[in-house]
Amino acid sequence: MKLLSGFFLAIMAGGGLPAAIYHLDSRAGDDARDGRTPETAWRSPGRVNATTFGPGDRILLRAGSVWEGGQLRPLGSGTPDAPIRLDRYGEGAAPALHGRGRVPWVLGLENQECWEIANLELTNFTAGPPQRHRAVEIRARDFGWVRHIHLRNLAIHDVNAVADYTNDGDTIAKSFGGIVTMIEGSGRPTAWDDLLVAGCHIRDTGPMGMVMLSSWMAGHRENDPQTWFPSRRVVIRGNTFERIARNGLLVRGGGAPLIERNYFRECGRLGSGNAMFVFHCDDALIQFNESCFTKYNPGDSDAAGFDSDYNCRRSVFQCNCSHDNDHGFMLICSQGSRANGFNDGTIVRYSISENDGGNLIRISGTVTNALIHNNTLFAKRDMAKLRRTPP
Questions:
Q1: Percentage with pLDDT > 90 across the chain
Q2: Are 47 and 35 in contact, with CB atoms under 8 Å apart?
Q3: Spans of the chain below 70 pLDDT
Q4: Burial class, 226, CB count within 10 angstroms (exposed 0-12 / middle 13-18 / buried 19+)
Q5: Which residues have C-beta within 8 Å of that of residue 211, sequence separation ≥ 6?
Q6: CB 3.0–4.6 Å: which of 42, 233, 268, 285 could bond 194 by disulfide?
């Protein structure tokens, strides 16, 4: 009876068809097969991209497989109870997709929801001049709530987009790198609902490790629902960000995002950047993170471990560890030159700063109601000496 019940649930989840498992094998696969078993696996990402998947389906990439110069862009959406899963099978190294700089992004979703993606290696390095590249691009436009996007245990590295663009604003410049989530459009309020990034290792990317963008932030100060539609249930947990050209993590347009137990090391290597910051967020909670060896470049304005940035309300930074960052532990700031700029109610508490240089805690611009208490700051005599070499 239990087996029959599971069968009927699978039929319901798939809209009339049972959920299916598909396999992809770069060595022994064949796109002419059906992909339903390891022995009849497909061979190319293009075969996956030509298929529309449904609730409960699984796409499994064989361990040790390697694909060069292409993109993985599967179609379809799952449901919260039956997400589509993209993962690995077999023993050995994580299946790897190397864009080689031939594609703008390696793994992407657009106006899709209810996906769980895990245990893949993704790169997009070019030996020529750095380009506008990404490893992961998750994009939505005029969609409404985009539910249940989970990224776990991804190894993302060697994405060498340039750190700055001469003729572009900072928002565009900071839209390339390891993981990029993009909310676009103005016709229908759109935001993430249950976005999880956990256990990923992001290294040697530029300009960003992970960045969130949204076109639904303009009315934040007034809480105008016509132009302010923040994402909810955003969790960034247990990730490692190493050797990032600018910022390791930038969370934009969030309501109560949770950022915890992440490790940031050697950010800001090629341009101004704090290791992590929140921007246009309300009620962000940043806790149990470690940030170290953020680099100060001549002329930079940022090189701290943590940052409560423009247009944030009630951000809480607690139980974090900052050490050996060139330009401080904590920045709280707003764009004082703009009449509508604000940063209100930031709390910094129960944290440790050790061997940080520059200004350990810096407040800049229109900042109100900040509360800084019960932190421990270890300052050395040579704290003004900015450059340090990580072990």
A1: 82
A2: yes
A3: 1-17, 130, 161-169, 336-337, 382-391
A4: exposed
A5: 174, 175, 177, 179, 180, 181, 247, 249, 250, 252
A6: 233
- What are the φ and ψ backbone dihedral angles of 240, each rounded to 5 degrees? -115, 130
How far does the chain reach from its first CA to its final CA, in angstroms? 60
DSSP 18-87: ---EEEE-TTT--TTS--SSGGG-B--HHHHHT-EE-TT-EEEEETT-EEES--B--EE--BTTB-EEEE
Tell me, what DSSP letter sits at residue 12?
H
d(CA 149, CA 86): 11
Q: How many angstroms separate the most distant Cα atoms in the chain?
A: 73
- HSE, side-chain direction, 13 A CA sphere, residue 320: 29
And the tokens for 270? 């090629």
Task: Give the strand pairing for 134-141 and 177-184.
Answer: parallel
Mean pLDDT of the chain: 91
- Both tokens assigned to 121: 């290696």
pLDDT at 5: 41
pLDDT one-digit tens code per residue, 347-363: 999 999 999 998 999 99
Counting beta carbons within 10 angstroms of the beta carbon of residue 363, is it exposed (0 to 12), middle (13 to 18) or buried (19 or more)?
middle
Hey, which residues does 147 pair with through a beta bridge?
A: 193
Tell me the per-residue pLDDT of 158-186, one tens digit each, with 9 for 90 and over: 998 665 555 556 777 889 999 999 999 99
